């Protein structure tokens, strides 16, 4: 089973958008998928309730119960778990990172947002988990800007994910309809981008697991 924690202390960086859309792609790819919402704002749970019975399932969790819920999901046959977390440094983010195989840190590619991810990077370091910054909601055509942002991220001692999720209005439209972008606009650019991020994430987890087993 793969567990991915979506963590950023910065509010509105795209955590919930990434969490629900990544989970929806996983589900469509045949994974038995669960979203664990650890945010008291309960945004992912709200999305889940708008979908009523449609997978992926969203459950909530208090921070101390996160690991237990991940173990329970595994025992019940889940193959892919995404943990959405609240902004601000708190125990939900720590417990989510602790339970994860891979940590994704969504971040807008602006100077203020980039400066703010340092706190999140320190948290991830404490647990020594593989972690990548995912650029979200920036301009779609700005290769140079993303290169510079990735360079800055590297200088903080962490890598940027090669897949980015640029600003696409379909994220807002899909969420408001309790849908994911792959359901709302299956042939759109956002669907292709989040699918590429899913493929990259699963490949990364498989590779790190193999490397660990070879040690
Ligand atoms: N790639 C994107 N393209 C367009 N809009 C986006 C994108 N990512 C996020 N958004 C929008 O940005 C806003 C904030 O996103 P979201 O709620 O996912 O952030 P968050 O990090 O979960 O916020 P919080 O810290 O409050 O939990 C939402 O309106 C969402 O639709
Ligand atoms: Mg959120």
Commentary on this structure:
The protein is of the alpha/beta class and 215 residues long. The chain has one domain (2-214): P-loop containing nucleotide triphosphate hydrolases (Rossmann fold, 3-Layer(aba) Sandwich), CATH 3.40.50.300. The protein has 9 helices and 7 strands; from the N terminus they run βαβαβαβαβαβαβααα. It has helices at residues 15-28, 43-50, 66-75, 91-99, 111-127, 143-155, 169-176, 181-184, 189-214; strands at residues 2-6, 33-37, 57-60, 80-84, 102-107, 131-135, 159-160. The chain has a 7-stranded parallel sheet with strand order 3-2-4-1-5-6-7, sandwiched between helices. Strand 6, helix 6 and strand 7 form a beta-alpha-beta unit. The longest helix is centred in the C-terminal third of the chain and has 26 residues, at 189-214. It is globular, with a radius of gyration of 16 Å. The structure holds adenosine-5'-triphosphate (ATP) and magnesium ion. Residues 15-16, 39, 43 line the site of magnesium ion (MG).
Topology, element by element:
Elements (H helix, E strand, L loop, with lengths): L1 E5 L8 H14 L4 E5 L5 H8 L6 E4 L5 H10 L4 E5 L6 H9 L2 E6 L3 H17 L3 E5 L7 H13 L3 E2 L8 H8 L4 H4 L4 H26 L1
Parallel strand pairs: 1-4, 1-5, 2-3, 2-4, 5-6, 6-7
Helix pairs in contact: 1-9
Bound molecules: adenosine-5'-triphosphate (ATP) and magnesium ion.
Magnesium ion binds next to helix 1.
């Amino acid at each position: 089973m793969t567990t991915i924690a979506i963590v950023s202390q910065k509010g509105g960086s795209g955590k919930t958008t990434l969490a629900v859309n990544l989970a929806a792609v996983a589900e469509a790819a045949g994974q038995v998928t669960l979203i664990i919402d650890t945010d008291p704002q309960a945004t992912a749970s709200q999305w889940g309730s708008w979908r009523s019975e449609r997978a992926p399932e969203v459950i909530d969790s208090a921070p101390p119960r996160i690991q237990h819920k991940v173990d329970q999901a595994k025992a019940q046959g889940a193959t892919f778990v995404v943990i959405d977390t609240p902004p601000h440094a708190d125990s939900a983010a720590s417990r989510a990172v602790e339970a994860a195989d891979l940590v994704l840190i969504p971040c807008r590619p602006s100077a203020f947002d980039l400066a703010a991810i340092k706190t999140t990077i320190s948290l991830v370091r404490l647990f020594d988990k593989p972690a990548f910054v995912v650029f979200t909601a920036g301009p779609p055509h700005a290769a140079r800007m993303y290169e510079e942002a990735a360079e800055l991220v590297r200088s903080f001692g962490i890598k940027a994910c090669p897949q980015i999720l640029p600003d696409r209005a379909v994220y807002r439209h899909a969420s408001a309809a309790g849908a994911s972008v792959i359901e709302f606009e299956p042939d759109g650019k956002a669907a292709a981008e989040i699918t590429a991020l899913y493929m990259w994430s699963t490949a990364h987890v498989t590779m790190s697991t193999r490397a660990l087993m070879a040690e």
